[in-house]
Amino acid sequence: MTVELHRMANGVRVVTENMPGLASASVGVWVNAGGRHERLEQNGIAHFLEHMAFKGTTTRSALQIAEAIEDVGGFINAYTSRETTAYYARVLSGDVALAMDVISDIVLNPIFDPHEIEVERHVILQEIGQAHDTPDDVIFDWLQETAFPDQPLGRTILGPPERVEAFQADDLSRFVDERYSPSAIVVSAAGAVDHDEIVRAAEAAFGHLQAHGGVDAEPAHFKGGEHRVEKGLEQAHYALAFETPGYRDPGIYTAQIFSTAFGGGMSSRLFQEAREKRGLCYTIFAQTGAYADAGLMTIYAGTGADDVEGLVNLTIDELKRAAEDMNPAEIARARAQMKAGMLMGLESPSSRAERLARLLAIWDRVPPLEETVELIDAVTTEDARQFAGNLVEQAKAALALYGPVAKAPSLDKLTGRLAA
């Protein structure tokens, strides 16, 4: 498998990875224009734009877009994250050119029909309502906002209903003009693909775009705080986040390995202590997520109203203990889990294409897998203990609580327990 990269004169990047033996391919366009690239009055517009991509272009109706891909047995989809909007398709090898044509069409030629805008507005408002009715979804939005308050990275991707209700065609077009610059666009393909064919299709579709500088995203600044909503739910939902390195910081590998050892699986400390030994909860985990310039290690658990205090205190005590006695076997297991998860995921062309685009967006290159594996293997037990110790020493966090949480300790009590 060989990764090949082409840079177009206007700044569009084209990256491919041929995977011998496959009969299918994943192709798509990743645009570095997500939630954190919105101004306050635009919050939610990147996601709205993603919805509108499938509602018709200057050459295809919404039905024709769906039929073009499904007539050949493929599928097409999109998603919006805080840093990226992606449009992609999975098709058989003989239909790669068709997929490229459809995807470039929906990215470059949306018509933003007023009727379709109203239809999607209603759909998105339903999506927002559904998220608000899902405690273990909405709590992470609250946690993000508490970690990064009053800045784009802290805002919800869906946007608030009042913003969504106001967006019009001109707002969508303006966001495209501002953010869909050639330098923000990555065309990525993996599987049964021919690099030269993808390059020719990309040049034909995007070569006419005029290069312009675009606008940089506002840098992230972790601040922390507490967001508590008491409600008569069955479960008390608890989420705690600490500041960790972003993807461009080599410390990201230590953060990911520590969180895996600490709460990433059934053998982890949190799962064993909180669920297996004490029966305090059904779900508990720790994970490290990252952006280009920032990251969060998040602990999440759901439990009953009477157990929430003990469970929250337990997570703090286990974090302090990990800084003292996390052992080599735990780190070796976490390294193995991280490498296996990465390599197993890359057996899919869709995962490969997404990885290529993400790495280009972060580093403007595609590090070889061997390089990433070496960085994972280089993390030591002492690195993990020191990482945990730094979290304890900082005693700074973001806390979100939802449900019957009257007995849950405050953030001040938690940070005091860390420092004790």
Task: Give a topology summary.
Elements: E1 2-7, E2 13-18, E3 24-31, H1 45-52, H2 62-70, E4 75-80, E5 85-92, H3 96-108, H4 114-132, H5 135-147, H6 161-164, H7 169-179, E6 185-191, H8 195-206, E7 225-230, E8 236-244, H9 252-263, H10 269-277, E9 283-290, E10 295-303, H11 308-325, H12 328-345, H13 349-363, H14 369-377, H15 381-394, E11 398-403, H16 411-419
Parallel strand pairs: 2-6, 7-11
Antiparallel strand pairs: 1-2, 3-5, 3-6, 4-5, 8-10, 8-11, 9-10
Short account of what is shown:
It is built from 16 helices and 11 strands. With 420 residues, the chain is α+β, with helices and mostly antiparallel strands.
Structure description:
The chain has 420 residues and is of the alpha+beta class. Helices cover 46% and strands 19% of the residues. It has helices at residues 45-52, 62-70, 96-108, 114-132, 135-147, 161-164, 169-179, 195-206, 252-263, 269-277, 308-325, 328-345, 349-363, 369-377, 381-394, 411-419, and strands at residues 2-7, 13-18, 24-31, 75-80, 85-92, 185-191, 225-230, 236-244, 283-290, 295-303, 398-403. The strands form 2 sheets. The protein has a 6-stranded mixed β-sheet with strand order 1-2-6-3-5-4, sandwiched between helices. The chain has a 5-stranded mixed β-sheet with strand order 7-11-8-10-9, with helices on both faces. Strand 9 (283-290) and strand 10 (295-303) form a beta hairpin. The longest helix is centred in the N-terminal third of the chain and has 19 residues, at 114-132.
